[in-house]
Amino acid sequence: MSTTTASPVLRTDYQRSIAEYWNNEQDPVNIKLGEVDGIYHHHYGLGPYDESVLSGPEETRDERVIAELHRLESAQADVLLDHLGPIRPQDRLLDGGSGRGGTSLMAHQRFGCRVDGVTISHKQVEFANAQAERWGVADKVRFHFKNMLDTGFEAGDFAAVWTNETTMYVDLFELFGEFSRLLRHGGRYVCITGCYNDVTGGRSKAVSQIDERYTCSVHARSEYFKALTANNLVPIEVVDLTSRTIPYWELRERSSVATGVEKSFLTAYREGSFHYLLIVADRVR
């Protein structure tokens, strides 16, 4: 048996509103970038961009920029996967808030293991499972209409769990309690997230604009570490990725897939009210 009976997937009006948002979402930035190679992400990018994509023939400029933005977002997923630790083909991984499934597919390509993704969006589940079929890995990579706060999976079944820009939609103490239950002893949790800076005091105007754009509620940086340690997840590494993500936003602002939120992200990062962190924690006890 791989699952137990879980509570209803959508438990609150807020969760229903989030599901509705992602069921209806069709932002070109989440579609066109994935069309480059069939790996569809729902997160941002890391690393310097190749400035040559902005020069050259004007008629192919947008194509070059789209491909470069996709390279940066896949590079971000690689950074996350680099921190999962030694994963064996017989292991099982969980992608919490799996979106259209890109990182899960990359994880299977790298490790050859079973990967389960969970999301509260029916549309995302259907899309991601279709991609797994297309890649010929549906026997190993599967996406489920489940709430990551209460997955119904068996306790201790997972070698590693990750979230990639999804924790701003949930209570962290509840989330990390579920992940702690799912992870085996010594299992690893990896998180990449945006969080507001406690030092600057509350959400800045730019961070509030990000919340409004994505119908989310960005957490304070300190809240992550309180919730982790309260649930037997001990941080082993924390990396500030803020400076490494700014180039992605600068390029995206100049692209055809800009949504208008780019200015809010760049302002928040540059003024220091918002951080882009990678957090790695191990399951103890």
Number of strands: 7
Mean pLDDT: 95
Radius of gyration: 18 Å
Overall geometry comes to globular
Q: Structural class, from helix and strand content?
A: alpha/beta
Identify the notable features of this structure and list them briefly.
285 residues; alpha/beta; seven-stranded mixed sheet; 10 helices; 40% helix
Report on this structure:
The protein is α/β, with parallel strands linked by helices and 285 residues long. Helix content is 40%, strand content 19%. It has ten helices and seven strands. Strand 1 (92-96), helix 4 and strand 2 form a beta-alpha-beta unit. The mean pLDDT is 95.
Please describe the topology of this protein.
Layout: H1 13-24, H2 28-31, H3 61-82, E1 92-96, H4 102-111, E2 114-119, H5 122-134, E3 141-145, E4 158-164, H6 172-182, E5 183-196, H7 205-214, H8 221-230, E6 233-240, H9 242-253, H10 262-271, E7 274-283
Describe the structure concisely for a colleague.
It contains ten helices and seven strands. It is an alpha/beta fold and about 280 residues long.
